[in-house]
From TrEMBL:
Transmembrane segments: none annotated. Residues 22-170 form the MOSC domain. This is MOSC domain-containing protein. It comes from the Bacteria. InterPro entries: MoCF_Sase_C (IPR005302), MOSC_domain (IPR052716), Pyrv_Knase-like_insert_dom_sf (IPR011037).
């Protein structure tokens, strides 16, 4: 059996700060800004609580990527979650997003995204499905906080991303640093 290449399963956006994002045929990524037409588009922070704290902060959360394998795990635990429902822009399959180091570059079609860190999910996830937050953020046996709600990134090369596109992974030079919440 051959292992398939990492791929985009689906793409999503929402022009409003809604919890879930809508499935679309393609998204347009603009370098240094994010997903065109999405509420989180911009060079400076767009997340509402971060805007209140300091609207001049750079936007390191331009694109949210989530692995479809998480939805498989959640389904086995009794949750029904579909791509886009947890607010991601790009749903992937076949790439260990959470294990990538900071600065990993993901080439998708003619676009590229540089991974900046882990998504830190909030209480809205429990509003979506009760008990889901404890599945997405928990403490492991060593006392470390484990965040499973995908990764965030910035657009480092403009382009179009569509479902089915292959994802090429380029790791940053050594030393490499693990993802932390952003």
């Amino acid at each position: 059996m051959t292992k398939s290449s990492p791929r985009v399963v689906a793409v999503h956006l929402s022009p409003t700060h809604s919890f879930s994002k809508h499935d679309v045929d393609e998204i347009e990524l603009h370098e240094g800004l994010g997903v065109a037409g999405d509420a989180h588009y911009g060079a400076t922070v767009q997340h509402r609580s971060r805007v209140r704290a300091d609207p001049s902060q750079p936007n390191v959360r331009q694109v949210h990527l989530m692995h479809a394998e998480l939805f498989d795990e959640l389904a086995a635990a009794g949750f029904q979650v579909q791509p886009g429902q947890l607010g991601e822009n790009v749903t992937t399959r076949g790439i260990p997003l959470l294990d990538l180091p900071v600065g990993t570059r993901l080439a998708i079609g003619d676009a590229a995204i540089t991974v900046t860190g882990l998504r830190n999910p909030c209480q809205q996830i429990n509003d979506f499905q009760d008990g889901l937050l404890k599945r997405l953020v928990h403490t492991d046996d060593e006392g470390n906080v484990v965040r499973l709600a995908g990764v965030m990134g910035i657009v480092s090369r403009s382009g179009t991303v569509r479902p089915g596109a292959e994802i090429a992974v380029e790791l940053p030079p050594e030393p490499r640093f693990p993802l932390t919440r952003v």
